[in-house]
């Protein structure tokens, strides 16, 4: 028995370790197939990155948001590494049944630690097994976060961990019996019942049981190692190892998520300079976005391989939850499996130029497996007929809301990869939803998505009963004011959003805040263009805006006059403008201190410069805009404002704050038709209507439009009460700040819940 146990265990150990070493080398080679990243962007602040890694692992900062799941997983994850010495102990027991680790083997704290962690690991994995069974995709279908995951692999891993956990406790019981423990002993805190169960067995029987159970523990461990080594795309297992580098190399060293800004386009490890990118005499081929899996950075390939298939991203995705084909999990899994299947071809020197020509010779490719050659011919983006890896409907369903990135426990950067694929489709293939083309043309010609004349940006200023200061007209520059109010395209041109603009401007006027707006020469910030994938257009719009803003704040490049960031204060009512100016314009040389209008309004209330006095009666629920909440972590100010308005009773929707549900307008989806599944805005409004509110409030013009459209549709169908209003928090605050004796809004204004005609472009001049 002993000899057989030794032979079987050692053979499995040698094979397992050899295959595991080979698998590690294989994964490293595959990651190096990815593109380089700009120097220092993934390795800056190494101490802080290490602290972030330790905090995320030991604190389980993402997993613990999921209650019992996070608690159970913590013990499984810590037990995986914390109980490694029990494997060494089991190997020793193959030779001497009552062998213990030198020095610490009989040290009481270590024995108690092993007992407790072994128990909690077994209970933890048992809990996760039960949770997986309760959420099997069979009945709930798409509602299960495990839909599409490789269930067989998950069952295998869970069974392995459970067997090992039980083996550890069983060996502890056998050790106690061999050591002649009589009566309760703290060293066998958990396994003492097993000690008593084995009491009375002969020494030879106990020894043989030790050999058997030790072999089970060792054999199970190395069978697992062999299986995962032969399946390097087995994310449910490999995340135990790859999660550490993936977190360490995450975008932000401080541990914050890869949300907010999008990074510039990169080719060959350098940011693309569009002024020289298309020069024919360039030394290197410039690649725009991702047209093939090897166009992703090495960090992107690491992201794909790290996916645990847990489905938390999928469970939160607004596209998936409304019947669309996009699941962030399935997208990453598809890219991972494609990358691993194509790797032999790429490692042999294979690859395609931008013109589609093969880089490798026939001699280089002759040893490449046929499956890898076939995988190499698949287009990265293509429908079922084209055998594409990612279907176009998957790619264009994304709203870039950030729910996937926010929830991912191993810090996968889904949005960056989706936008990289969009960039190639838009800039090289010109393959994108046709209706989005209208928006791009309007941005190119008129500087706003609606294609309206720039003079109409100032039309709203004639609809208020006070003078709105305008840079270059009524004020020379912004040194004379406290804030530049960046109105944005929607705030200036869309009728429903203009109500927010006028309300906020009036509140600033009441509070005595000195502010001014641009004179109509500003362009769209480029948010929609960038997230659609047109990086070139974004940079055009952004550079022009940055130049105009810097000039408005008194900077002069020719004279060498600069203004410090703290003196360049901007307030925006649109979270998309807020995010772009604050987080992305620094990439273009624009450094401004930017706040959202809800932040400023809360500050003015706290200072006593705005005093809500008039009650606004009713039940209100607040919708978190994705680009204000998840992308920029602004959750409190809007709720503080609502809480200060007398008469309002606030009730949160089930999905709010970090788990808030998108309105459907982000990622340039505002300008695309929604033809698949349920409309996202209808899903969100249905959730709001379940509370029977009197007011649905938000703090974003895009959200305001989407929610209003849905509410109006439901009113027409008799599924929403006629007096239900959709309002920005600024409108609510203004209603409360005004006293009953204040004059009502100018005649002709419609209530927030009434449908408004979409703005129309100016008629073409007569020829």
Radius of gyration: 31 Å
Number of strands: 10
**Amount of beta strand:** under 5%
Distance between the termini: 100 Å
The number of helical runs is 28
By secondary-structure content and strand pairing, the structural class works out as mainly alpha
What's the structural domain tally?
3
Low-confidence stretches: 747-767
What summary fits the major beta sheet? 4 strands, parallel
Strand order of the largest sheet: 4-3-5-6
Average pLDDT over all residues: 92
**Helix proportion of residues, in percent?**
40-55%
| Shape verdict | globular
Please outline the helices and strands.
Blueprint: H1 2-31, H2 46-59, H3 68-82, H4 84-95, H5 108-134, H6 151-178, H7 192-198, H8 203-229, H9 235-248, E1 266-267, E2 270-271, H10 298-306, H11 312-316, H12 328-347, H13 362-365, H14 370-376, H15 392-395, H16 403-407, H17 414-427, H18 434-446, E3 483-486, H19 488-493, H20 495-511, E4 515-516, H21 527-532, H22 535-552, E5 569-572, H23 575-584, E6 593-596, H24 597-606, E7 618-622, H25 636-644, E8 648-650, H26 680-689, E9 695-698, H27 701-716, E10 725-728, H28 729-737
Parallel strand pairs: 3-4, 3-5, 5-6, 7-8, 7-9, 9-10
Antiparallel strand pairs: 1-2
Structure description:
The protein is mostly helical and about 775 residues long. The chain has 3 domains: about 240 residues; about 120 residues, Fumarate Reductase Iron-sulfur Protein, Chain B, domain 2, CATH 1.10.1060; about 300 residues, no CATH class. It has 28 helices and 10 strands. The strands form 3 sheets. Strands 4-3-5-6 form a 4-stranded parallel sheet, sandwiched between helices. Helix 25 links the parallel strand 7 and strand 8. Helix 5 packs antiparallel against helix 6, helix 12 packs across helix 14 and helix 24 crosses helix 25. The longest helix is centred in the first third of the chain and has 30 residues.
């Amino acid at each position: 028995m002993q000899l057989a146990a030794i032979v079987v265990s050692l053979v499995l150990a040698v094979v397992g370790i050899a295959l595991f070493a080979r698998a590690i080398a294989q994964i490293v080679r595959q990651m190096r197939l990815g593109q380089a990243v700009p120097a220092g962007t993934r390795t800056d602040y190494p101490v802080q990155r290490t602290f972030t890694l330790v905090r995320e692992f030991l604190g389980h900062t993402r997993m613990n948001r999921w209650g019992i799941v996070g608690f159970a997983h913590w013990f499984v994850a810590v037990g995986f590494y914390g109980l490694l010495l029990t494997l060494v102990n089991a190997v020793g027991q193959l030779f001497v049944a009552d062998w213990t680790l030198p020095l610490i083997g009989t040290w009481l704290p270590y024995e108690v630690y092993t007992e407790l962690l072994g128990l909690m690991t077994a209970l933890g994995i048992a809990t996760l097994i039960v949770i997986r069974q309760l959420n099997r995709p069979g009945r709930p279908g798409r509602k299960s976060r495990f839909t599409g995951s490789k269930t067989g692999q998950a069952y295998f891993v869970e069974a392995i961990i459970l067997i090992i956990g039980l083996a550890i406790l069983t060996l502890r019981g056998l050790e106690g019996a061999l050591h002649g423990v009589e009566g309760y002993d703290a060293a066998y805190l958990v396994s003492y019942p097993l000690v008593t169960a084995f009491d009375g067995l002969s020494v030879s029987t106990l020894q043989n049981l030790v050999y058997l159970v030790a072999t089970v523990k060792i054999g199970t461990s190395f069978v697992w190692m062999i299986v995962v080594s032969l399946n390097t795309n087995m994310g449910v297992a490999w995340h135990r190892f790859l999660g550490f580098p993936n977190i360490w190399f995450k975008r932000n060293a401080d541990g914050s998520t890869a949300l907010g800004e999008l990074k510039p386009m990169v080719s060959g490890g350098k940011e693309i300079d569009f002024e020289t990118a298309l020069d024919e005499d360039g030394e290197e081929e410039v690649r725009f976005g991702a047209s093939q899996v090897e166009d992703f950075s090495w960090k992107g390939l690491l992201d794909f391989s790290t996916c645990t298939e847990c489905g938390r991203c999928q469970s939160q995705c607004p596209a998936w939850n409304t019947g669309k084909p996009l699941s962030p999990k399935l997208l990453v899994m598809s890219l991972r499996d494609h990358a691993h299947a194509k790797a032999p071809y790429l490692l042999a020197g294979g690859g395609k130029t931008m013109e589609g020509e093969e880089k490798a010779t026939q001699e280089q490719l002759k040893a490449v497996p046929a499956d890898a050659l076939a995988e190499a011919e698949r287009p990265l983006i293509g429908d079922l007929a084209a055998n594409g890896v990612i279907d176009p409907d998957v790619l264009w369903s994304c709203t870039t809301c950030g729910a996937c990135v926010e929830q991912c426990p191993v810090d996968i950067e889904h949005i960056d990869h989706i936008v990289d694929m969009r960039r190639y489709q838009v800039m090289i293939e010109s393959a994108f939803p046709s209706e989005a083309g209208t928006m791009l043309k309007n941005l190119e010609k008129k500087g706003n998505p609606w294609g309206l004349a720039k003079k109409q940006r100032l039309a709203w200023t004639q609809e208020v009963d006070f003078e709105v200061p305008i840079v270059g007209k009524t004020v020379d520059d912004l040194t004379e004011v406290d804030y530049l109010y960046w109105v944005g395209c929607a705030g200036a041109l869309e009728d429903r959003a203009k109500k927010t603009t006028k309300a906020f401007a009036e509140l600033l006027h009441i509070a005595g805040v000195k502010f001014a707006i641009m004179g109509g020469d500003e362009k769209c910030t480029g948010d929609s263009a960038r997230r659609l994938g047109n990086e070139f257009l974004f940079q055009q719009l952004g550079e022009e805006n940055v130049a105009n803003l810097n000039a408005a704040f008194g900077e002069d490049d020719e004279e060498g006059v600069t203004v410090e960031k703290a003196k360049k204060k901007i307030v925006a009512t649109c979270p998309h403008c807020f995010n772009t100016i604050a987080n992305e314009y620094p990439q273009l040389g624009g450094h401004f201190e930017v706040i959202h209008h809800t932040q400023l309004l809360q500050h003015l209330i706290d200072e006593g410069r705005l005093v809500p006095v008039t009650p606004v009666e009713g039940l209100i629920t607040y919708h978190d805009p994705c680009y204000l909440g998840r992308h920029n972590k602004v959750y409190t100010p809007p709720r503080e404002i609502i809480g200060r308005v007398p008469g309002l009773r606030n009730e949160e929707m089930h999905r709010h704050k970090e788990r808030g549900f998108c309105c459907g307008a982000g990622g340039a989806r505002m300008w695309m038709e929604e033809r698949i599944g349920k409309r996202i805005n209808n899903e969100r409004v249905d959730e709001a209507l379940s509370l029977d509110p009197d007011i649905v409030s938000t703090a974003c013009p895009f959200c305001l439009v989407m929610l209003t459209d849905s509410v109006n549709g439901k009113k027409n169908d008799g599924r929403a009460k006629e007096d239900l209003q959709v309002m920005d928090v600024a409108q609510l605050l203004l209603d409360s700040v005004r006293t009953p004796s204040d004059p009502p809004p100018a005649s002709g204004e419609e209530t927030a819940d009434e449908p408004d005609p979409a703005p129309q472009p100016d008629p073409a001049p007569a020829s």
